[in-house]
Write a structure and sequence with these properties.
GO biological process, one term: carbohydrate metabolic process
Radius of gyration: 22 Å
Organism: Chryseobacterium formosense
Structural class: mainly beta
Distance between the termini: 44 Å
Number of strands: 34
Family: Belongs to the glycosyl hydrolase 28 family.
Pfam families: Glyco_hydro_28, Pect-lyase_RHGA_epim
Helix content: 10-25%
CATH superfamily of one domain: Single-stranded right-handed beta-helix, Pectin lyase-like
CATH topology of one domain: Pectate Lyase C-like
CATH architecture of one domain: 3 Solenoid
Number of helices: 5
Shape: globular
Keywords: Glycosidase, Hydrolase, Signal
């Protein structure tokens, strides 16, 4: 009897969620939503007091390890009500930096924070690795359940990674791996998948030295009011900017140049109210990839990526410009990409939504507007429901709106779709799109409710998308 009741409740919930779903009928609707969302996302304010790290013993010679000086300055600043912890001109070597509430880590012109290549300088903390919770190395800059934190200034954050440090742990020979030295993440990655599938508590999934799971660069975790502006970020061990389960995230005028393995530029994960603007990405993986957790972890935590604005950014090399997935089991909704520019023969796709039936979840309300693309390799718009291994959780992709898209030197396809017959990409709209240099107009399988208005590929009207 209980099973019948639970099934009926699930059915009613499903019907209720379906009833709430309403696809856009005009660009005016998402544009209005963007305007309202911008009013909600606020820059944190800080007390106008500076704490110079050199007053706490820091030496900017690129050789002296300054981990303790950063710790003392940040703790004192936070304890006294907050302010700026200032990094002056110089190269300051350090291990992991922990950001505390009400602290703005400010990098002055000509300053560099150079991170240690010694894994022992990164304590074990609760983190996420490829969308899975675990105990692993602290990200290079980390915060947990903090509020009002920032990284600002025109200095440089250098992750100090290369073919001999961090990168080769990915196990690929092109990134320096060879059998003559220890260090390969594959066994640990498999073990973490096993922990997740068995729902082992996150704090019992312990990694660190001997496991070779690379840390991410900047990871505020379960934090509120995170701001980042003007800095250059380069040479990350893995993902660059990775806020997790955060709310009210504002990133502006940041430049990310990092060509290592899995060197995604900006990966907000299961975050709410995120705005990134006027930033630059030249990366070894996705430029911007919106996430909400992998498989069981993403579904069990159940926090979607929600209310994200990507505005006036420039993307060069990368697997994708604006990407949703693949660690997207918690779902994603209300993703607005407006006024972005992309151009690189090494950029695979402009807009990519990638998921799988091992993920599940619903990706909906994606607005891709006023986008200028020079070159790309594979597809201007790419839907993929068969990314990585299959499972028993068929995903949903719906209400995808592309308007005012220009492509000057297209790649293989204009539109490329790989979906499930039982779950077609639904309510896909493309308006005012002009794409030239494309080899094949489209390759699609399961699409439903497609609207094409004033779309041309190589000068010819595109009026339908059929398998």
């Amino acid at each position: 009897m209980n099973k019948i009741v639970l099934t009926f409740v699930a059915f009613l919930l499903s019907m209720s969620l379906s009833a709430q779903y309403k696809p856009w009928t005009s660009a005016k609707q998402p544009l209005k939503e963007i305007k309202a969302l911008k009013k909600q996302i606020k820059k944190p304010e800080f007390r106008k007091v500076d704490y110079l790290i050199t007053d706490f013993g820091a030496v900017g010679d690129g050789k002296t390890k300054n981990t303790e000086a950063f710790k003392k300055a940040i703790e004192k600043c936070s304890a006294e009500g907050g302010g700026r912890v200032v990094v002056p001109n110089g190269v300051f070597l350090t291990g992991a930096i922990y950001l505390k509430s009400n602290v703005n880590l400010h990098l002055s012109d000509g300053s560099t924070i150079l991170f240690s290549q010694d894994s022992k300088d990164y304590p074990i903390v609760l983190t996420r690795w490829e969308g899975m919770e675990c105990m692993n190395y602290s990200s290079l800059i980390y915060a947990y359940e903090e509020e009002n934190i920032a990284i600002t200034g025109k200095g440089t954050l250098d992750g100090n990674s290369d073919l001999d440090n961090w990168w080769f742990w990915c196990g690929a020979t092109k990134y320096g791996y060879n059998t003559s030295r220890p260090g390969r993440q594959n066994p640990a990655r498999a073990k973490l998948h096993e922990y997740m599938a068995n729902r082992t508590p996150a704090r019992e999934r312990i990694f660190g030295d001997g496991w070779y799971l690379r840390p991410n660069f900047v990871q505020p975790y379960k934090s509120k009011n995170f701001y980042m502006a003007d800095v250059l970020v380069k040479n990350s061990p893995m993902w660059n900017l990775n806020p997790v389960l955060c709310e009210n995230v504002l990133i502006e005028r940041v430049k990310v140049i990092s060509h290592g393995p899995n060197n995604d530029g900006f990966d907000p994960e299961a975050c709410k109210n995120v705005w990134i603007k006027d930033s630059y990405f030249d990366t070894g993986d996705d430029c911007i990839a919106i996430k909400s957790g992998r498989d069981e972890d993403g579904r069990d935590i159940g926090k979607p990526a929600e209310n994200h604005i990507i505005e006036n950014c420039e993307m060069k090399d990368g697997h994708g410009g604006v990407v949703i997935g693949s660690e997207i089991a918690g779902g994603a909704k209300n993703i607005y990409a407006i006024g972005n520019v992309m151009d690189s023969k090494n950029l695979d796709r402009a807009l990519r939504i990638k998921t799988s039936s091992s993920r599940g979840g619903t990706i909906e309300n994606v607005f891709f507007y006023n986008t200028k693309v020079g070159a790309y390799k594979e597809a201007a718009v790419r839907f993929n429901m068969h990314y990585e291994k299959p499972g028993n959780h068929i995903p949903t992709i719906r209400n995808i709106w592309v308007e005012n898209l220009t492509v000057d030197k297209g790649g293989k396809y204009a539109v490329f779709s790989d979906a499930y017959e039982s779950s077609p990409v639904t309510d896909f709209t493309m308006i005012n799109a002009k794409m030239v240099g494309v080899q094949i107009p489209y390759k699609v399988d399961y699409l439903k409710n497609v609207t094409l208005k004033n779309v041309t590929v190589n000068g010819q009207p595109l009026t339908e998308l059929k398998p």
